[in-house]
Amino acid sequence: MSRQHTLLIFDNLETIRDRDVVLAFLYELPATVKVVVTTRERALFSPIRLLQLPADESVQLIHQEAGNKGLTLSDTEATQLYRAAGGVPAALIYAIGQLAGGYNLANVLTGLRAQDGDVARFTFEGSVAPLRGKPAHHLLMAMAMFAAPPTPQAIIHTAGLAAAPLEADAGLAQLQQRSLLTITAGRCHLLPLTHEYALAELGAHPDFEQEARARWVAWYQEFVAQYGEYPWQEWHLNHDHLEKEWDNIIAVFGWYVSTNNYALAKRLWIENQLDMFSQLYGYWDDYLACYDFLLSEAETLFLRKSSVILFVNAKVSGFYSPKQYFSKQISSSRENCF
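and the corresponding structure tokens:
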């Protein structure tokens, strides 16, 4: 190799078992050899970090690959693929290959999100498997509960690591090193594919999920109790905090709806004056859907209290059922925010 210029490429270094042997070999190579190493881990060498493609470039890649395979996709179909794959080129190219092989779009989208699918195994299994049972894995599963990018503090609390800040920080660092999570402007972000995989991991650990769900809803009950008060001279400051977390607050209310927990839903919405906030900030669909659930449950339980009866005319006609609405809203928030 010392006699000719050579480019040597090692792909997915994190999956190689004898990594120390490989690294020793790389360091001994002559100057005529240039090496490109791809890895999800960020602690090696001088990295050039490649993030996911933005939406416009992803759609462009989809149309280009589709054209190469004799396919024609509409912009709507290309956008659906982008939202499912989250701008990961390998996943997009794989999806186009599936379409060219005769699979319909709905099945391809389902396959992209499947925990046991080819994309998930190729993209995540090697990175996640060593973390299982460790704080980093708990943080990843906790992250799956949020409808929009949360703060690190919210994830740490939900994961049950509030009393172990050093372990929590080390776990977040591990997730970032393995490109499973990014922290930008004080918010934690997952790619859509990563989020779907994390949801499946959460579902595979029901004991952890039950405990983490309790911590998750407690976090937001306390949050809205703190910022739902209205000091009239500076009410907008509290509202700013609520607006930043609105998608996650609605996700918690949606969880109460899915579990038919009227008491906690009422406490979250009415006692913290979220009805007033949602009107002032124009979240009318959320406002109506929340009251639709509260009123229907109040009628069922014969709990017609004045705080609910005042809004009897807010019942939604021709609308989704509350459970359908909140399921749709949470899915939409995740697609648009993560």
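(Above: one complete record from the training split.) Residues 206-227 form the longest helix (22 residues).
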